[in-house]
Amino acid sequence: MELKNTEKQEHSVIALTIEITKAEFEAAKDKAFKKTGKNITVPGFRKGHAPRKMIEKLYGEGVFFEEAFNIIYPEAMEMAVEKSGIKPVGRADVDLGDPAEEGGLTIIAKVPVEPEVELGEYKGIEVEKETVKVLAADVKAELNRLAQRNARTETVDRKAKKNDTVDIDFEGFVDGVAFEGGKAENYSLTLGSGSFIPGFEDQLIGCKAGDEKDVVVTFPEDYHAKELAGKEAVFKCKVHKVEETILPEMDDEFAKDVSETCETLDDLKKEISDRLKKERQEAADHAFEEKVLDAVIANMKADIPQAMIESQIDSIVQDFRYRVQMQGMTFEQYLQMTGTELGAFRAMFKDQAERQVKSRLVLEKVAELENIAVSDKEMEEEYAKMAEQYNMDVEKVKSIVAADALRDDLKISNALEFLKKNAKAKKATKKKADEEAAEETAE
Question: Of the N and C termini of the chain, which has fewer Cβ atoms inside 10 Å?
């Protein structure tokens, strides 16, 4: 067999023309005959004992063609890929051409390959970076959330007011007819939570235990149940009890209750401020990183084959499949429950997959242009970090995670760090002065 021609085509596809001699294909047919001929019945012969020529005469000369092709194709492709020096990124689209000699075979394999990447400006990229601030109002809001989380409820003998929780039975009617899903007993509803149809909760304010009330509301035009959208409904409600939410006092004892490390309320405020600052700084750093990468991607030129995008979608879907299974559900059950076809589900991740592919190509090119390498020390540190993360022996991790794959991933990470270090951060557009004037930075 011989690689006769290598031709570049659009969308980073290389057409490989491979010629296989008559003798080579005949040898493949013999292998195919030995593999499948034993299952073929020929009158006058015991099953599996008919000669090849007799089978071909009875069933046609092409009877072993497909199996012979499947036998010889992998070897032919391996030879052609090695000689051409290409890096396939997906399955080849295969056609047959006119054979060079009768009885031989010509294979034309159109192989998607890694695209040639041309970078524009990638050093000194100027992008916005958010200045991290933690305001007194932010700390106060977080304290309020902690207080809500640690609040207690107490049954009260009075009329319900906003933020109270009422225990109710209700049944909904449209045009005097009860509708499906509109009935519940002993339902706990916090007034003002906005969890029910607009207007429902407001009409229960002023009710007390034992009261019955008809709540009249109109379903929104965009309501998920189309048969109810835009229609007026009457909910017959009965209130069983009213509960008041009692928030804890904001004092040193509260701080001790909600934190394992704080002794005073001031300690708690500082802890919250430090945590929010750290979280926001990480978010700002990540956003800056994404903007730098987006800017470099925008300057990149590469004819990316669709096979690379599809392969990345495969990875995303496989990861999703695994996470669904960890929750005790099969992927097929998830699709059925959500009424989603596999094709539509895959299409949801097209943009994400495309950006991931472009990001990887950009960073690989940066690593190449800047001669970015990964030291043995970095490799050992990463293996140790993974061992600690998964509570495994380092040598066990090394047996699972291939060194070449890890080195490639670390090279990508180093390339990203290079881009960030060589980028210029400019202040993000400031908020309107009147939005910040009333706020005070928390110390």
Answer: C
Q: Tens digit of pLDDT for each residue in 331-362? A: 998 888 888 899 999 999 999 999 999 999 99
Rounded to an integer, what distance in angstroms lies between the CA atom of residue 160 and that of residue 244?
Answer: 8
Residues in the chain, how many? Answer: 443
Q: What is the dihedral angle through the alpha carbons of 109, 114, 116, 121, rounded to the nearest 10 degrees? A: 160
Number of domains in the chain: 3
Residue 118 pLDDT level (bands cut at 50, 70, 90):
very high
Strand spans (E) along 177-263: 177-190, 212-218, 232-246
Asked if 316 contacts 353 with a C-beta cutoff of 8 angstroms, the reply is yes
Whether residue 395 sits in one domain with residue 346: yes
Is residue 357 a contact partner of residue 309, using CB atoms and an 8 Å limit? yes
pTM score of the predicted model: 0.70
**CATH number of the domain within which 204 lies:** 3.10.50.40
Is residue 128 helix, strand or coil? strand
Order of all β-strands in the sheet with 2-9? 2-9, 13-20, 105-112, 93-97
Give start and end residues of each alpha helix (H) in 329-393.
Answer: 331-338, 342-347, 350-369, 376-390
Q: Give the C-alpha separation, 175 to 262, whole Å.
A: 58
Residue 56 CB contacts under 8 Å (≥ 6 apart), including other chains:
63, 64
Residue 183 and residue 170 in contact, taking contact as beta carbons nearer than 8 Å: yes
Residue 391 domain boundaries:
257-427
Residue 94 has pLDDT above 70, yes or no: yes
Name the DSSP letter for residue 48.
T
Q: How confident is the model at residue 181 (pLDDT cuts 50, 70, 90)?
A: confident
Q: 168: which strand partners? A: 187, 239
Which residue type is seen at 187? Y
Rounded Cα distance, 407 and 397, in Å: 14
Our CA angle for 206, 212, 215, nearest 5°, is: 75
